[in-house]
Amino acid sequence: MDNNSKDNNVSAKTLGYPYSVFCDKKVLLVGAGGIGCELLKNLVMSNFGEIHLIDLDTIDLSNLNRQFLFRKQHIKQPKAIVAAKTAQAFNEHVKIHPYHANIKDPEFSVAWFRNFDIVFNALDNLDARRHVNRQCLLANVPLIESGTTGFLGQVQVIHNGQTECYDCNPKETPKQYPVCTIRSTPNLPIHCVVWAKSYLFPNLFETTAELDTSIDTSASDAEQVKEIAELQRETEELKQLRNALTSEDDACRRIFVKVFCDDIERLRSVPDMWTHRKEPTPLDFDELITKIDSDSKPWVQDRRIWSLADNLAVFYDSCQRLRKRVWDEELKSRKDIDFDKDDKDTMDFVASAANLRAHVFGIPTLSEFDIKQMAGNIIPAIATTNAVVAGICVIQALKVLTNGTRESMNIYLSRRPERVFHGERVCPPNPFCQTCNFVSFQLPADISQLTLGEFISKVLQEYLQYSDEISILRNDLIYDPDFDDNVDKPLSELLVDAQPANTLTVLGEAEGDSVETLERVPLLVEFVPLDQEHDRSVKFVLPETQIEIPKKQSPEKQAQEAEEMNELKEAVNPEDKELIVLDEETIIIEDELGESLENGDVVSASRPLKRSVTVEDDITELPAAGTAVKKGKLDNA
Amino acid sequence: MSFHQNKYDRQLRLWEAAGQSKIENASCCLLYVNNVGCECLKNLILPGIGKICILDDRLVDKSVDAPNFFLDEEDHNKSKVECLAENLSRLNPDVCIESKKANPLDIISSDIDFFHSFNVVILADMLPKIQLIKLTNYLWNKQIAFLQLRSIGFNGSIRVCLPDCTILQTQNDASLDLRLNMPWAELKEYSKQLFERESKDRHGDIPFVAILVHGCSQLETGNKGNPSSQRKDILRNWIKTQMLYADEENFEEALSNCWRPFQSTNISSALKTIFDDINCQNLNEQSSSFWIIMNAICKFVECYHCIPVSGILPDMKAGSSEFVSLQRVYQQKAKEDALKVKNYVQKNLKLLSRPIDSITDDEIFQFCKNASQARYIKYRKIEEELNSPLLTDLASDNESLVPWYFAFRCFDIYKERYNSSPDASLTSSIHKYEEIACEFMKSLGQSPTQSVCNACREISRSAGAEIHSVSAFIGAIAAQEAIKFLTRQYIPLNNTCLVDAAHARTESFSF
User: Fold this and answer.
1) Does domain B3-163+466-509 have CATH number 3.30.70.260?
2) Which Pfam families does its entry note (chain B) (predicted)?
3) How close A121 comes to chain B (CA, Å)?
4) Which domains does chain A possess?
C-alpha cells in the first residue's frame, strides 16, 4: 500500500484514518461537470484506490466559471477524459479510468456496478439519476446522490433496503404544455418560447425532426377536428419552407409571412376561439421592414428588451445566418442544425421568433438573456455551492464506508446565513416505492441444463414457497399459469437479451390460504455460473440462508392511490391530453430540492412533514486517527 | 454575447452584471498558504475576482502540504507562494495573481499599510493575539473585509468581520410586499372592474390580487371594528362563495394569500433597524447614498405608513391581459412612490450641500424596488471578541457547537505558547491543552465542561492537520461569504460559523 498514499508522512501521523479507509476502495463517479470536478479532486486527494469517471458531455465555455479542471483550450473535448488527465497530474498514485460514454449504455451493467464499493452521482438530469439509482439498488452498492442550483444544494445517501431511494419521493418532471396552448392560444411568454424552440425551430432546421403528427384526432367536436386539421396543414407548409431555405433567396421573408401573418389569420378565423380571448394580431412584414435601421445590430444587446422592429431585424439576420449553415458545400447536401442555447445563431432565431409571437398575442416580450434561461432550462451554477456539496459527499462517503448507511445524513444547503445547511437522518425506504421494493438474489446455476419448468417447481415453489400463481418476466412475459410454452426450454435460451443481464423477475404470491393478501414484492433472480468444483449433474445451488420475500404493503392503499391518479388524469381537459415536452434532458432541480418557505427554511420537496428534522448529535463517533479500529490497514499504510 | 459573458453566464444569472463587475474590480489577500486557504482562493478565482495576492515565506513541505491539491510533491522545498501562484493562475487567466515571499507577521509589524489596497483579507491560519488585533483594527478602520478560516481535522470555523455592511439586494423574494393591507384607489378600481365585467367566462383570469382587494372593499362596511382574524374568516368565506367551481385556481391562490390584507405593517424589523440607526437619523458630510436614500424612505414611511411599492409582481394564475394591466397599475404606483422618495432625497442633498443630481433617479428607483429586503449589519470587532466573546446562554447548551469555539480559542493559545499544535499522540500535549482550557474557561467566568474537553481531545487528534474534503467545504463557504461582501448581495454571515463535519452540522453565532 506504500505507493497508494500521496504522502506517507502525513497519513501515518494524522490523516491516516480517512486515508486508510479509502485507499483500497474502488469508486464510480458519474458526471464530470460542476460537482463532478470538485468531487474528483476530493476523491483524488482523499486517496481513493481506483476512480472510474464517466461523462458523455464535452466541455463548453460556460463551464469554465466552476468546472476548474478545464481550461479554455479544452473546449469541445470530452469532459471525462480531460478531467481525469488534469486531476491525475496531482496524484499519480491514484488510478483514474475515464469513460467518454453514456452511463445508460448496456456495457455498464448491474454486474459492472458491483465492482464498486461506492458510487457518486454528480448528474444534471432526472433520467440518468434514476437510472444510476436503479443500477445501484440492483447491485446493492451505496450511492451518494447530489445536486445544486444556485446557492441551494443537497446530498442524499441511498442504499438498497436501508434508506429511501431516489424514487421514494416523487420528483417534479419537466414542465409540459398542452399542445393547443402552444400552437393556438399562448398566454405566457414561456408558451411562445416553447413554440419557437420546440416547434418552429426543429421543423425548419432539422430534417429528421419528428413532425408532431401525434395530434389527438379523436377530438370530441367538429371544431376541434377542424382546428387540428389546420395545424397539420401548417406543419406541412413549414416542411415545404424548410426546402425553400436552401433554394430560395426570400425564404426568410416567406417564413415570417407564413408564421406571423398567414397562420395567424387562419387562427383568427376559427369560430368561437376568440369570444373569450384577446384575438391575435398578424404582423405585416413589408410595413415592419421599413422601420428597421439597417445599421442596427440589436442582437449584440441581449439584456435589452428589443422593439418589434428589433425583433424582426434579429429574426431576419439570424435566419440568414442559419440559411448559410444549412447547406453543406462539401457534401452537396443540407444538414441539420440543432438548437443549442450557446449557439448564438440558433438562440437569436428562437429569441426573436418567441418575441414576435408574443407581440402577435399581446404577451409581454423578454430579453434574449431571459429567453435563453427559459429555452435552455439554465440552472444558475457557481463554484462555491458545488464545492460545498462535493465536500459533504466525501465526508458522507467516509461515514457510509465505516459506519454503514443507516447512520448517514441527508444534507440540504440553505441560503440562510444563520444555518449554512441542515441535516436529516436518512429515512427507511418508502414501502410504496415502485423502484426499490424488490428482493434480489443470485442463484448459481447451470443455465444450459436448468429448464424454466424445473426452476419454477424446485426453486420457486419448493424452496421459496410460491403458490401456483406465478408470472415470470424477462423484459416481456415468459411464463404465467396460462402461458406455459417455455417450461421445457433451458434458461440459457430464455435469458438471451434479458435486462438486467441473466436476470428474471418473478411476480407471485406466497403459498397459503389466508384471506389476507399473499402477494409478494417482485423477486429478481440473477443466474450466475456454478463454481468449478460442482460436478456436472448439479444444476443449481440454493443459498445457505433462507431468503425472505416480504409481502407487498397494503395493496388497498396502492389501489386507492392509483385510482386518485386516474381521477386526476380524467379531470384534465381532453384537449390538453397532447403534451409537448419542453426538454427531456434537463430538469429544474430547484423544484426537486424544495423551495424557500416563508421562514427561509429549505425543506425537501415531497414528504418533508412526515419526517422529523433531526440535527441531533448522536452519530457514532468516528474512530481516531490510528486507533485500533482500522489498525491493520493503518499498519500497512 | 461576448466571450466573457458566456464564460460567466451561469453566475451572472445569480448576481447579475452589477455584482460581477464588483467581483472583477476587487482584490484579495491571503495570509498563509494552507489547504483551506487555497480552496477558498480557488472559489474566488473561478468567478473572476480581479486580483489576488498570496503572502507567505515558507517552503513547500510535503509532510504538511500533502492534502493541498494545488501544491505538488515535486514542489518540495520550493517557495510556497510561487508554486501556488503558478498553479492557481491556470484556473482563470482573467485573474491577476501575485505572490509575496514574506512572513505575514513581519508585514503586520513593519508594513501594515501593505494591506490598504485590498477589499478582502483572508487569514487562513492563526496569528498571535497582538498581531491579530493590530491587523484587524487596521482593516476595520480602512473598512476592509476580514475573514479568518480554520480547518482542523473534522472541524473548523469561519469568522467574518467588517465594521458594518449595507445590503440592498438580499435576493430574498419571500419578503415581496404587494401593499394589500393598504390598497390605493387605482388598484381598487382595477379590481372592481374585473368583477363587474359582464361575461363570467373570464372569471378564471382574475388575478388573486384583484380578488383580495375587491373582496376587502366589498366587506369593508360593517366590518371595520372587528378583529382581523374574524375579518380574515369573512373574506375567506366570501372568496369561497365567489368560486364558480371547486379548485378554481386563481381563487385557490387568493385563499392561500388571505393573510396579506391583514398584515398589520409591511415594515420588516430589519428595515426598522435601518431607520432607527444613527446613520439614518443623522445625515452628515460622510453619509453614503445608502443612508441618504434610506433617510428619504424613512420619511416616506412616516408620512404614508407604508414602504414604497416595489412594482414587482410574483407569478400568479391570471389571464395575460389581466396580468399585464395589473402590472401596469403596480408599476405606475411604484413610479409615483419613487418620485415622492426622490423629493425627500433632493431635500437631503440640499441640506448636505451636495449636487442635486449626485444620486440618480435609477438609484432611487432601485432602492424603492428593494427597500423591503434591505439589511444593515453591524459587526463586532475581533479585539472585542477576543477579550469578551458574546456567549449569551449558548455556552451552557450541550447541543450547540459552542464547545468547539472554546477549543479553537484554546488551540490558538496553545500554539502561541508552545509553537506547535496540540497532538493526541503525546499525553503531555493533551494535558497542556486541557490546562489551557481550564484557564481559559475560568477567565471567561465559565467552568470547563465535559463537552469542551471532548472538543479539545477531538481537535488534538488531528494535531492541527487538515482533511482535504473538510477544507474544501470550509474554503467554499468562506469564498461565498467573501462574494456576498463584494457583490453586496445576499445576507452575509454575522459573524462566526462553526463546522462539525463529522456530524454534518454547522451553526452560526455572533461572538
Assistant:
1) no
2) ThiF (PF00899)
3) 17
4) 3-167+382-425 (3.40.50.720), 184-375 (1.10.10.520), 439-528 (3.10.290.20), 555-633 (no CATH)
